[in-house]
Amino acid sequence: MFEKILIANRGEIALRIHRACREMGIHTVAIHSTADANAMHVRLADESVCIGPPPPNQSYLNIPAIISAATITGADAIHPGVGFLSENAGFAEIVEAHGFTFVGPSPDHIRMMGDKITAKRAMIEAGVPCVPGSDGAIESLEAAKKFAASIGYPVLIKATGGGGGRGMKVARDESQLAQALQLAKSEAKSAFGNDEVYMEKFLDKPRHIEVQVLADNHGNVVHLGERDCSLQRRHQKVLEEAPSPALNAEEREKLGKIVVKAIEKLGYRSVGTLEFLYENGEFYFIEMNTRLQVEHPITEMITDIDLVREQIRVASGAALGFSQADIKFFGHAIECRVNAEDPLTFQPSPGKVTDYHAPGGLGVRVDSALYTGYAIPPYYDSLVSKLVVHGRNRAECMMRLRRALEEYVIGGIKTTIPLHRKLLTEKSFIDGDYDIHWLERWMDGGK
Ligand code: ADP
Hints:
Blueprint: E1 4-7, H1 11-23, E2 27-33, H2 40-44, E3 47-52, H3 63-73, E4 77-79, H4 89-97, E5 101-102, H5 107-114, H6 116-125, H7 141-151, E6 155-159, E7 168-171, H8 177-192, E8 197-201, E9 207-215, E10 221-233, E11 236-242, H9 249-266, E12 270-279, E13 282-289, H10 296-303, H11 307-315, E14 332-339, E15 351-352, E16 355-357, E17 364-368, E18 375-376, E19 383-391, H12 394-407, E20 409-411, H13 417-423, H14 427-430, H15 438-443
Helix pairs in contact: 4-5
């Protein structure tokens, strides 16, 4: 097992990884920008290295600085966390070339899944159903028109290198196609430096259902059930639950089997998530994330498996210590993403946390790097806490979550806690009756 891991990230996820390392007896190295000198992940790590000024491209995305930090501190492995360099195949290669272990999949798998066209091709070959769409990039308006006519409107133009819901535009009919194509391309160019786009049938009322997988270097693959992440705003997840209120045991098993078979065929190792849209009883693959997901804790709560620990174990070459038959699902879990944002306008609200009281009690878990007196810097993601609640069933989970949201105090800044409180009183949510567009409709006042 590794003796020392450098955590190439910040915020709650850096803390989450630190916790797993600590329990495994692995020393941790935190890296941080000058803006994060007082951050909790830095305070708790065994060692820390300042790697640059606040802008991410000079610090958390600064590969030479990160490699230097790992070299100076004598780390064995680098954990990339979520976001930043976690899906950068070049980074994984550089890490390995310098003799460190990258806690994640092989660079080839990261590259294959990072390009959504090659990802879909690989999945189709592995027997996974995909959203009907173009087989490759859409090069021209003529090609777009022809293809849209063949699959039928509405269609969605998506960036090949997309992420975070950017570079995605809907065209409801041919008159909207030229603009959608141009907007998707320019958004993709500025966000990812790559303006290649492809086309998919735009599904009207799907749910977003994703399957967690875990695989080792020895050909063992398991799935840990699904998460329902349909509550989204601007294609970004707001609240997630596991299991999905929309699936029955039969569908769950069917989907799990398809996914495990595909992962075996690909020879993938580490944790990973296959994302699907689910409509009218059918699953359609949209993308695979080759890293830990923000919402991984809800899976941990219903399986009692520490995903970060397993990710580190398999990265060290260890075999999975359990098989599919050993994985039992227990109860229900929900995660609320708490962002430092205005709950109505979603304007970022960084600043000093003047008061902090996290909820507790049975079944309540808070993954957060906040503390009283901490100043949230304005340079990074606004996710500041994940409130994760478990109950024996969905009703108990929601009851507990309502209570936990009432207890949660984060003073001095605005957060999305009021949005979650309101959501928990809404009938459609209580009934589990929602699709990926529901939250935006609800926030607009329509239902
Ligand atoms: P990103 O990598 O930017 O997160 P994804 O492909 O994972 O992009 O899609 C993000 C979200 O966008 C999905 O969860 C879903 O809400 C929506 N979406 C993606 N593809 C489609 C589609 N074909 N039809 C309808 N909605 C879609």
